[in-house]
Design goal:
By secondary structure, the protein is α+β, with helices and mostly antiparallel strands. The protein has 6 helices and 12 strands. It folds into 2 domains: 3-63, Beta-grasp domain (Ubiquitin-like (UB roll)); 68-183, Threonyl-trna Synthetase, Chain A, domain 2 (Threonyl-tRNA Synthetase, Chain A, domain 2, 2-Layer Sandwich). The protein has a 5-stranded mixed sheet with strand order 2-1-5-3-4, sandwiched between helices. Strands 10-11-12 form a 3-stranded antiparallel sheet.
């Protein structure tokens, strides 16, 4: 098995098997550190902890209380928001749900606008979804697979977004439970 060299911020270098994930690396250092870690930077690029490490590189762990960590938590919260809306109103299409400076939002397409009363209902559904404890997982789909799945769900905007992704970029899908969405 081929080994890779992982360099840490303090300059320490450790050998790991090629294909090891960031999760495995952080857990090998400290279980308490692993509990605080929400992502990694691999060679300076923000990456999912489940991504395999294929070549030598530098790793930094992203803590949940850091600026990057807060952005990831907001991203996950946006997904929970979209899942809640679609559970409550299944005919609703989701469009984009970016993280912004002071939070996040999601754009939705539905026949009737949301009312003030809907917000409490959505918030309650979000709490229910979080209480299920479903892990966020990343999958990489083919372009054709993504278009076919989103088209079958009636998610026309997602099909357009897939078409807009440059051909040299992978199609990343993040799932929690049975719900999933396209991510860049």
């Amino acid at each position: 098995m081929k080994m890779i060299k992982v360099t840490f911020p303090d300059g320490a270098v450790r050998d790991y098997a090629r294909g090891t994930t960031g999760t495995t690396v952080v857990e090998s250092i400290s279980p308490s550190l692993a509990k605080k870690t929400v992502a990694m930077k691999w060679n300076g690029v923000l990456s999912d902890l489940s991504d395999p490490l294929e070549d030598d590189g530098r790793i930094e762990f992203v803590m949940r209380d850091s600026a990057d960590g807060l952005g990831l938590i907001r991203h996950d919260a946006a997904h929970v928001l979209a899942e809640a809306v679609q559970e409550l109103w299944p005919a609703t299409q989701v469009t984009i749900g970016p993280v912004i400076e002071n939070g996040f939002y999601y754009d939705f397409k539905r026949d009737t606008p949301f009312s003030e009363d809907d917000f409490a209902t959505i918030e309650k559904k979000m709490a229910e979804i979080v209480s299920r404890g479903a892990a966020f997982t990343k999958e990489v789909w083919t372009r054709d697979q993504a278009k076919q799945v989103f088209k079958a769900k009636g998610e026309d905007f997602k099909v357009e977004l897939v078409d807009a992704i440059p051909a040299d970029q992978s199609i990343k899908i993040y799932k929690q439970g049975q719900w999933f969405d396209l991510c860049r």
